[in-house]
Amino acid sequence: MTLQQLRYLIAISEYGSINAAAQNLYASQSNLSTAIKELEQELGITIFTRSNRGVTLTNDGTELLGYARQVIEQATMLEERYAPGENKHARLAISTQHYAFSVSAFMDMANEFSGEEYDFILRECSTGEIIDDVRTFRSEIGILYTDEFNRRVLSKAFSDANVTYYPLFEAKVHVFVGEHHPLASRSILDIADLEPYPRYSFEQGTTNSFYYSEEPLSHLPHKKNVRISDRGTLTNLLTNHNGYTLSTGVLSSEMHAGIASIPLNVDALMQVGYIMHNERRPSDLLLSFIEHLRAGIKQNPSVDEYLGE
Asked: Which of 116, 150, 262, 279 has the fewest Cβ atoms nearer than 10 Å?
């Protein structure tokens, strides 16, 4: 077993395919395939299952990946200690629900980084994918929300994935509508006010469960539903059509111009936080991202309670 084999293992798990990992590592696909095959033969396990969509870690592969991460992190510490003058290729992967404050913190971290080489990844994806990304070490951190309705189910999912949830802030539920929406001038809304209008929500893929929804009160029945997969489409729908979505009330800079955020008259609170794998040691880059995430949240007036460190 070599460090190179372990680095290939980590890269393949993060990129989701041997071809993508090879391209980003400037290595040949055959070298990566051979390295993984030799590692499987040496250890007597199957690390990946292969399909037309890429590769997926087996249970044995996930366990091995955890050990590989620890070994490579220790090797990196040794390199940094005894070869401080060398340029390092920095890497950070983030998975998040569709929150603009996650993007802002990510870019603040990237703009602050002074190194000459880096590979930063931001994945806006479904709740189930976020948990799986952190479970399999594909991402260092996952950002999502919990509330009284989904917390029990998600806590079980976090435990099964060997991750810990760290709360960031709590906020009342808000309704996002376009500035020309019939409800845009209202100071507060009731659930009944929303009944005539389409409800926009993010599609959750194969884990299509109320408990995994990104929007609060998703379990309440609604006659008109539009499901989407990216934040740009949501912004377009809100600014040009008479639908609505429910969220924390934290608007991004690109949404301020054409979208109104109105409190919803319900007792429910959204708690946004992040998950990290219990076997991961946070890198300096990850700590920088979390610091920028907290800083951006502190400045937002829609946050009811900042939950601190």
From this structure: 116
